[in-house]
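Hi V.,

You were right to ask for the full record rather than a summary. Here it is.
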Amino acid sequence: MKKIFLVKVLVLVLLLSFFGCATMPRKGLKDNMEDECASLDPEVESELRIAKQIIEKARLEGADQRCPKAYQEVIDLWNKAKESNKSSQFKQAISKARAAREKAQMLCPDSDKDGVSDEMDQCPDTPKGIKVDDQGCPIDSDGDGVPDSLDKCPDTQKGVKVDSSGCPIDSDSDGVADYLDKCPNTPRSVKVDKDGCPIDSDNDGVADYLDRCPRTPRGVKVDAKGCPLDSDGDGVADYLDKCPGTPKGVKVDATGCLVCQDIEKLNLESLVNFDFDKSVVKPQFNSVLDKVVDCLKKQTSVKVEIQGYTCNIGTKEYNQGLSEKRANMVLEYFLKKGVAKEQLSAVGYGLTKPIASNATREGRAQNRRVQLKLTY
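Predicted structure:
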């Protein structure tokens, strides 16, 4: 029994000795029928076997893939130890075998603990806890150059320039990124629309922050300040100006038409009064009418409607005709004084529209009148 046991032990030792060297990785170390770890020096043989076992363990753990350069250096060092053994340079063989063992034990260090060996790690100082790619660099899902861990805008379109936070650059700080901004040089604090352009509330082509007339009606032409054009410079915008060719410096009314100061001083509601049942203009009113004539001749854009009226004595029909005669008498007076015919019109209103009570003599006298209404 004792002999059988010793035989079994001997066989087991031989098997362990064979597999200790013969199972080395095929990459770099060749498997031969002979025992590559065999040596005339027991210490050398032991060192070769131990080193080879540790190298094989590193390979099984993926060292040949995770740090191929360092792994190959270990293989080369072990092969040199083997060659030294064959040359009976036992001290060198032991030294190289031990060096190969030590290097194999320290293969594929990962300094930043990101799962990628230092040899393969292109970003060796990645902070702990940050997800990395196969090259050991922080993952950048949108490819903008800012890793996901720092990216405040992780879904940025490819090719868009971003800042250090991974957000699209907004050069003018208007809230619209440059790649979407159709007005990239908007002054700061100016309100903009979705395209990054200054808001133009009245759509006149002049932005609100420059518009001095921000409520211009649509379709009205404006100047660079956003105000309606006033071609003749009379203070009345063209779109409201009924007399667009007014000379500069001349006073105009709200419609942009000339206003004669002399006419402004007259009582146009009762310019001329007439005797009962008469249509003759009395000389006492000539001076007043002449002021009107002077104004109309100077300001040919001004037109007047000459309105004739009567009191209520007599029939409606008779008074209608009398009022027309009175209006025409004043019209003839203006024509004789040189006022252009196209500036004048005469209308009779009969006994309508009294300005005083027809119950008294004084009131009826006031109602027998001609008055003027300026038109343009």
